[in-house]
Design brief:
By secondary structure, the protein is of the alpha/beta class. The chain has nine helices and 13 strands.
Length: 277
């Protein structure tokens, strides 16, 4: 049996419920969990490296979405309709995604601020009514050495794109070298699973004609594949990309009907019911 973990990044207080419902109803109806990397207190002026607004601040009529309040950030609990929807659909699993999702947030934040940001993010998600998150996803999949150490103290799973010797804590180096020698995609340090993924294979920035081929190649080569996508890419500038949405639903159909594959949550790895080879 091979396993797929669907990780959708950037759900936040400004995310329209209708977007998540349209994208993931086929998954939920087939009993396939969807892991939402959720921003606890989103920065409503978050910018990419080129200075343009982040795509998860869904643009309407050419302008990025804004908070209705004067605050620069909006906590997830402030969108009661979204929180209620997520809680009513247990197929959604909430994963902590930074705190504000500033650019390279957990790569650039001073070491003495990392713990506070992690704990604040967890507190906000739990106050909204979600269970304590056990998995952490850093904005842009980038963590500093101090961030890796603090996250591992608090979470059972770190999901990121890759691991570099210059970033992982020095005490992890022996296991890091062993992972490299064996060519492992996933590894473990004490109680924390360290998962990598093959890039954002479900992306509007890839060739639609070659996405399925790339997904199948990864799934067949690994015991566990973390399949990353971003809900807002399907609704760029507030306009649904029907072809891309259709491809996501075709992927759902393939995953649901392949007896050799099972879609799981990060929580199932934490539970120990599924062990990494």
């Amino acid at each position: 049996m091979r396993y797929v973990i669907l990780r959708d990044d950037d759900t936040n207080a400004l995310t329209p419920v209708d977007c998540l419902e349209r994208l993931y109803r086929p998954f939920l109806d087939q009993g396939m969990p969807v892991n939402l990397a959720t921003i606890p207190d989103v920065d409503t002026d978050a910018r990419k490296s080129d200075g343009s607004p982040e795509g998860f601040l869904l643009r309407t009529n050419g302008a990025p979405a804004k908070s209705s309040s004067a605050s620069k950030t909006v906590q997830i609990a402030q969108n009661r309709r979204l929180v209620r929807y997520l809680l009513q659909n247990p197929g959604f699993h909430i994963v902590q995604h930074g705190l504000h999702h500033e650019y390279l947030e957990f790569d650039r934040v001073p070491p003495n601020e990392v713990a506070n940001r992690l704990e604040e993010g967890t507190r906000l998600l739990m106050e909204a009514g979600f269970p304590r998150p056990q998995t952490f996803v850093a904005p842009y999949d980038r963590l500093s050495r101090s961030s890796f150490a603090e996250v591992a103290r608090r979470f059972r799973v770190i999901s990121t794109g890759w691991y570099e010797l210059g970033r992982v804590p020095v005490p992890w180096w022996p296991k890091y070298f062993w992972k490299k020698v064996r060519g492992l995609a996933h590894w473990q340090v004490e109680k924390t699973l360290l998962l990598s993924h093959p890039g954002c294979l479900l992306s509007c920035f890839r060739s639609y004609d070659k996405m399925l081929e790339a997904i199948l190649d990864c799934v067949q080569r690994q015991q566990v594949t973390v399949l990353v996508t971003h809900w807002w890419e399907y609704f760029r500038d507030g306009v649904p990309d029907e072809r891309f949405i259709g491809f996501l639903h075709e992927t759902a159909h393939y995953l649901a009907n392949n007896p050799d594959l099972k879609v799981i949550s990060f929580a199932e790895l934490v539970s120990g019911r599924i062990r990494l080879n």
